[in-house]
Amino acid sequence: MEPYGALAQTRQIGKASTGARRKLGRPSSFIFKKVPGQSNELLQEEPQQTRCHGARQEQPRRFTADQEMGHQNPYRLHHLQASVAVPRRRRIKCDEGAPSCKKCISTGRECEGYSNGAVAVAAAAYTTGAAAAAGLLAVYNQPMPTVAPAGVDASHAERGAFAMLRGECVRRMAGLFSASFWTVDVMRATHVYPAIWHAGLALATMHRATCITAQTAHARASRQRHEAFALAQFHAAVLAVLRLTRKPVLTDADKEAILLASTLFTGLCCLQENYEQASRHANGGNRLYWQWEYWKRGAAAADEDGEDGDEDGDATCTGQDYRVDNQGLRRAGCVLTTKSLTAVFTHFEMQFCSRFRTTENPEWRWCDRAHRCSAAPFASAADAYTELQPLLTGYCHMGRYLSVPRDVAELAPVWRTVDAYVRELRAWQLKFDDLLARRRRRRRRPASDDDDDDEEHHHILSLQLLWMVLETCLGHSEESGEMIWDERTADMERVTAFAETHFAARCRPGAPRVFTFSFAMSICEMLTFVGTNCRDGGIRRRLITLLHGWRERDGMMPARLLALIVHSVMVLEENATTGMQAPHDACVCVPGSLICNHHRVCLIDTQFLGERSATIVLTTAGMLEMKLPPYETSVSW
């Protein structure tokens, strides 16, 4: 089905002769009524209610003579009835998800959509002050109409693309924990910021193009048509962002629009499988996120944090520089909560530090302090994930920093920060256990929404798997080193069995694809982390099987590429003594049983080459110590 529905076609019912129209001499939209004791005369106009493309509009109905007209000449009556026949639109079942008409119009005119007060609200929302807060509240509580931001004259095709964004696209891209980001945050922003309006339409149309997989001529033409429209919307979004950047001073609303636009550009490139460009968009937005300190509530919060500093001496945030509770806060005049973009950008950065070594990630961002876990209890799995993601990203940065050999004096303050992260992660675990206990009590009650409960249960299982993976590395210390992973083999076996039990069904060939892209954490990333750190060949091969069969497409890295990364690491380490790696004097490798510390991969870099191809660059501890070039292999999927 084409996403841009054509205007409803009209059909002519009967024909009117020119002579008959001259004899009638009255507009065809009026009817005669017989009043007792009076002759036939024009009394009133009676419009008939018709339904046209989702709207209830007025349409003149066909002239019908009353019974008294039966006394007239039948020949004249026939011409009279034919002469007043008017065009009538074909009746179309109302679909609130489709673009809607404001008035019944003739063929050839474009539908202008419903008139709605949200346009004025959107204009007010872009200002600051109390009026902006009231306007934003009105936008939040309204159902989502097809209303473009102030200053944007949306075409019929754009309204059709927005209906697709609001309906199909947000459901397919919601992922595990970012449903509210798509269904609430992005939808709000499209009514306020022109850049987000155009970027959202480009994303929705490109998503629809990727769903057209047939190889017929009609399908190829439709796909090209969608891609051309998406490209035009992308250019319009870029121009809107450039207009914002030319301002002498950027407001918080301007910064919010730029950051959200960069995330949507990242998703658009991922749908095109242009992962190199996607990483550039994500990295650029991530740098602005840190430069503007967007996780803070604003300048007042920044001053407060600067005064508090780190006086408690435990490397934990003492100011309100992240959030005060798990509901999140909004900056003045902004639409989004700080927590939504914080979760998105920290997830981007975690992917960078794990698999994009060449991407610049200043270490000072995470080496000085840890995010504080809030005191408020979790209301849902999404709340738990949103608070965990920044902690997880910081902890992954610590792991990457410690994987490179460094001086003891340089590592001392880093281990202090690692201890602070572990304390906050343990605090998160207590809150998550409380959420699980409340869910168990609630599930004993007979009345519950089965669909919502099943979805929440899947989210809980994903978080449980994530915590099981994270728990395997919380016991690391300055003395443990890289060989500590060998002591975690039993835990990694338990993680693999848990994934096979609860998620293997989603990897079968006939399994439905729940979504096609998401900014939130995916199961694949957890399995990849275990596969690259586990040195048990059997467990690794089971994980590769799960990743290779994963049908969902979430995050910036496709599942098959992640499977190839794990496979490349496994092949390099298992063949350390067969010539793939340089020999080392301190090597104690036992083929098929033990991989020594010098021949273990400690850094992974992914360099995209083109469509579905990349170069995987692997560096071992021995290569770093002896200053040898890394191992490179090209893969395609």
UniProtKB/TrEMBL annotation:
The keyword Metal-binding applies. It comes from Cordyceps militaris (strain CM01). Residues 88-116 form the Zn(2)-C6 fungal-type domain. Keywords: DNA-binding, Metal-binding, Nucleus, Transcription, Transcription regulation, Zinc. One of its GO terms (molecular function) is zinc ion binding. The keyword Transcription applies. Pfam families: Zn_clus. Residues 1-27 are annotated as: Disordered. This is Dynamin GTPase, putative.
